[in-house]
């Protein structure tokens, strides 16, 4: 992997983690339990990374 690819992946991971934390905090404030908030945050991180990796896969074809 080139330096640009590594930095792009780190940027996508950072954005996904920020989205996950934000959605987990919103879930807690909306009345969900801690376990549910963690699952919501994890799902958001997984979804964001899936979209990023799918975009990379389509671009590289």
The low-confidence parts are none
Structural class, please?
A: mainly alpha
- Sheet having the most strands: none
The tally of strands reads 0
Return Rg in Å: 14 Å
Query: Whole-number average pLDDT?
Result: 92
What portion of the residues fall into strands of 2 or more residues?
under 5%
Tell me the helix content.
over 70%
Rough shape? elongated
Helix and strand run: HH
Q: What is the count of structural domains?
A: 1
Describe the structure.
This protein has 61 residues and is mostly helical. The longest helix is centred in the N-terminal third of the chain and has 27 residues, at 3-29. The radius of gyration is 14 Å and the shape is elongated. It has helices at residues 3-29, 34-60.
In short:
Keywords: Membrane, Transmembrane, Transmembrane helix. The protein has helices at 3-29, 34-60.
């Amino acid at each position: 992997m080139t330096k640009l690819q590594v930095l792009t992946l780190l940027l996508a991971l950072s954005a996904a983690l920020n989205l996950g934390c934000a959605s987990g905090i919103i879930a807690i404030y909306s009345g969900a339990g801690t376990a549910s908030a963690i699952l919501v945050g994890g799902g958001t991180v997984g979804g964001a990374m899936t979209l990023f990796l799918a975009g990379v896969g389509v671009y590289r074809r």
